[in-house]
Amino acid sequence: MSHTTDKPPQVPASSTAGDPTAMADELLVVGGAVPFDKTTAEEENQYHHYTGNAIPWFVRGIWIIFWCYAITYVVLWLLPSLQSELLSPP
Questions:
Q1: What are phi and psi of 42, to 5 degrees?
Q2: pLDDT of the residue at 41
Q3: Which are the contacts of 16, defined by CB distance < 8 A and separation ≥ 6?
Q4: CB count, 10 Å around CB of 51?
Q5: Alpha-carbon span 13 to 32, nearest angstrom
Q6: What is the pLDDT of residue 38?
Q7: pLDDT recorded at residue 66
Q8: CB under 8 Å to 21, separation ≥6 — which residues?
Q9: What is the C-alpha to C-alpha distance for residues 18 and 36, in angstroms, rounded to an integer?
Q10: pTM (2 decimals)?
Q11: Sequence-ordered list of residues with C-beta below 8 angstroms from that of 17, at least 6 positions apart, any chain
Q12: Cβ atoms 44, 55 nearer than 8 A
């Protein structure tokens, strides 16, 4: 029984895909740069739509509820307690 292996397909020179036969050591030799990335910034931006820190609506709702509770607590409980403690310490 002979075992044959298929060679990986050859990548055209204009392709942005890496060499499938390249080893990790060969890629690290170039100092972390990606030698096979030939796209410009304009071409790259064509397919990517970046959003900033998109926070889900329910997380915003949790923060709003938290801050409403915190302000209510400070006004109703903390300030009156501080006044009585500061004016007549135990």
A1: -65, -40
A2: 72
A3: 36, 37, 38, 39
A4: 5
A5: 21
A6: 72
A7: 98
A8: 8
A9: 6
A10: 0.41
A11: 11, 36
A12: no
Q: Is the dihedral of CA 57, 63, 68, 69 positive or negative?
A: positive
Amino acid at 64: I
Distance, in Å, from the CA atom of 17 to the CA atom of 9, rounded to the nearest integer, reads 12
pLDDT recorded at residue 16: 52
Read off the tokens for 22: 């390249």
Contacts with 39 (C-beta within 8 Å, 6 or more apart), sequence order: 16
What does the block give as tokens for 62? 């949790």
In 1-90 the beta strands, taken as DSSP E runs, fall at: none
Please list the ranges in the chain whose pLDDT falls under 50: none
Tokens for 80? 């009156």
Q: Which amino acid is at 76?
A: L
| Encoded tokens for 75 | 């006004």
Sequence-distant (6+) residues with CB within 8 A of 35 are: 27
Give me the DSSP letters along 8-54: PPPPPTT--SPPTT--HHHHHTTTT--TT----HHHHHHH----S--
Question: Computed from CA positions of residues 14, 20, 22, 27, in that sequence, does the dihedral angle turn out positive or negative?
Answer: positive
